[in-house]
Every structure is written in structure tokens, then in C-alpha cells.
Amino acid sequence: MAGIGLRAEAAENMRNTKQRHKISSADGFIAALDQSGGSTPKALKLYGIDPTDYSGETEMFDLVHDMRARIVQSTAFSTDHIVGAILFEQTMDRLIGGQPAADYLWQNRGVVPFLKVDKGLAAKAGGMSLMKPIDGLDALLQRAVEANIFGTKMRSLIESASKSGIEAVVAQQFEVANKILEHGLVPIIEPEINIAIADKAAAEDLLLQTITRHLEAVPADQKIMLKLTLPDTANHYAPLVAHDSVLRVVALSGGYDRKTATQKLAQNTGVIASFSRALTKGLSAQQNDSAFDAALGQAVLDIYHASVAG
To answer: Which residues participate in catalysis according to the annotation?
Structure first.
């Protein structure tokens, strides 16, 4: 029995090592498939499913799971272009292709699974929206470990170049990240900056300074990831890309259309995409498999080429 346990531990360590190497150095991008309860109706509407087509949350989540499953089972969803995927909690708990979602991604697609762990945004205050309290975080992280999840993601929102506000956002993110690291998972910290604010560039300066300071407290044997809004100045976050405590920096599309997002991304060396809307735009429940795969394939190639351009 001890031998079985040791072999299982060795296999787990090998999987983790392979996944860490893929995320840190492989060409490609991370697909964000983690729409939550609040954003799911909009995602489904863009996919051609109107709110009048379903009744209640159960049907809604069934439909969005079908959409996600169709995406990851598409021939266009290839490990040659996609290194990771961020899942919603309910996706982690469901099957894709007859397998647990995270296992399907890694074993069948060679794609590293991440899990969205935040519970949404608290009410805006001082130009910031902190994360809501994450009740039951330890239990969720333990479930994630048991489901063979590699890392996590959590989002805050910055809507003002406020030094104290940005400090509060980043401090909260790193506090939760430390708990995630204790479970052996790699946290993706996402302090999104609203692309529409007038002082976006100033907010980016403050965010760079604040994250850099907090990175100094990350244990020497640990690494985190960062998911950041595409900056106004190309390579603004280059110091974070090069930081010893950062496994990888990824960018969110943040409301930019795919053309604009990919153009901006290509200007930022070492940063790869983690797009959601820019990835799924143009996909429809009414498309046959050939049309669906073609539309997804074009999106994947556009985002991939921008991710490797630097």
C-alpha cells in the first residue's frame, strides 16, 4: 500500500512539474472560460442563447457548460496554441467528454487547468471594487487539489488612480494568494484596471509600484502569476515579467475588441493572453461544428500570434 501511495505522489509531482514548465515557458495563451453567475447571461446571449430560452440558474449553467465543453472539445482548442484554461467552479465539478473537466483538459488536450476562486466584487468604494469575502476558501482549494487543478484566479477592479485604493486591492490579492500557495496551487492575481478611466496610465504606474513592493514578501521558493489590463505604454510591466517571483504575466482583453486587444498584446514582450470575450466572440450555438471550429480556430490563431509576437 505504501508503494502505491509513493507512486501516486511521484505521478502527481511529475504532472505538476510538466504543467509548471508549460505555463512558464511554452508558446501559447490561457483561455478564460470562467464566466460566473453574474456574467453568464451576457455570455450566453452573445452565444445566441437569449434569457427567454431558459428558466432559472440550473438551466443557465447547463447551457453555459455545454458551450464551454463544445469549445474545449473543438479541434481548434489545441495545445499547440493554448497552454492553460481558467474554469468556473461548476465547470471543475462537471464532466467533459466523460471525464472530470480538469483531467480532460490535461490528459486529452494538454492544457493546464486553473480555477476561478473569487466570489465576485464587493460594492465600489474609493474608486475600487475589492473582492467579496471568499467563504470556504480552504475547502474549495482542497477540492481543487483533489480535482488536479494547477492554479487559481481571482479578480479585483481598479477605477481610479488612488494610491491607497490600489494598495488595498493589491494587499487583499496577495493575502489570499498566500493561502493559495499554502495548498500547493499557483495563484493568478488579477487587479484589473478599467480601460475607460481617464487616469488609466497613472493607475498603471501605481499598480506597477505596488505589485513590485508586495512581490518582495513572496517566499523565495514560491511563484505567483499576474493577470493585468493591457497597458497604455508598451512593456510597462516588463519589470514584472522579469521578476523572480513571477511565473508568468498574462493580459486580459478588458473590453477591447479582438483586433485592438491582439495589437496591444503583441507590443508587450513576454506577456501572453488570457482572453474571454475576445476568444469567444463570433461563436454561436446555431453554428454547425464546421462553422464553429472555423470561427474558434481563427480566434485562437489571432490570439496565439499576438501572444508569441514578443
So the answer is: 190, 227
**Closest Cα partner for 153 from 31, 26, 265?**
31
Q: What's the rounded mean pLDDT across residues 183-209?
A: 98
Residues 310 and 27: beta-carbon distance below 8 Å: no
The DSSP output letter for 252 is E
pTM of the model: 0.94
Pairing verdict, β 151-158 and 112-116? parallel
Q: CB of 189 within 8 A of CB of 217?
A: no
Q: Answer whether 130's CB lies under 8 Å from 169's CB.
A: yes
* Alpha carbon separation from 279 to 87, 97, 137, 217 (Å, rounded): 14, 21, 29, 34
Closest by CA to 26, choosing from 34, 18, 37, is 18
pLDDT bin (cut points 50, 70, 90) of residue 1 is low
Cα dist from 276 to 30, 254, 273, 283, whole Å: 9, 9, 9, 12
Helix segments in the chain, DSSP class H? 2-25, 40-46, 56-73, 89-92, 101-109, 137-146, 163-182, 200-215, 238-241, 258-266, 277-280, 289-308
| pLDDT over threshold 80, residue 72 | yes
Q: How far is CA 57 from the centre of its chain?
A: 23
C-beta atoms surrounding 7 within 10 Å: 10
Q: At what angle do helices 200-215 and 163-182 cross, to 10 degrees?
A: 40
Which residues touch 105 (CB under 8 Å, ≥6 apart)?
72, 85, 96, 111, 112, 113
Question: Above pLDDT 70, what percent of the chain?
Answer: 97
Tell me the β-bridge partners of 192: 157
Sign of CA dihedral 196, 129, 191, 68: negative
Domains of the chain: residue spans and CATH: 2-308 (3.20.20.70)
What does DSSP assign to residue 157? E
